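Hey,
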Amino acid sequence: MKIKGRTDPNKIALISFLRGAASKNNTKIWSLLASEMSKSNRMRVIVNISRLNRVSSPGDTLLIPGKVLGTGSLNHRLNVAAESFSKTAQKKIRNAGGQCLTLEELVKKNPMGSQVRMIK
């Protein structure tokens, strides 16, 4: 018999944490993120640095419900929170003066989710 739904305990805990943060702070962004994280791995978001460079302004905080890859270049400082980062992406974001955050760190740092843009 095939198991349906999420089986990774870390991802299940993250989704539960996000739903709790959404209800506690009465914010919609964390519930949207939890629903994106609940999707199957085939529907997972993968974003390159070049796209982040195109769609953002200096100092923006971006939320990626998936993985950030290092293809392209970054010309300005960004704070990026994602499920995971490639080593190249981390290096390029930090070299531009930005920060790479986990999703939990972003929720704790900005519980209301103000001035955060989700890139899908």
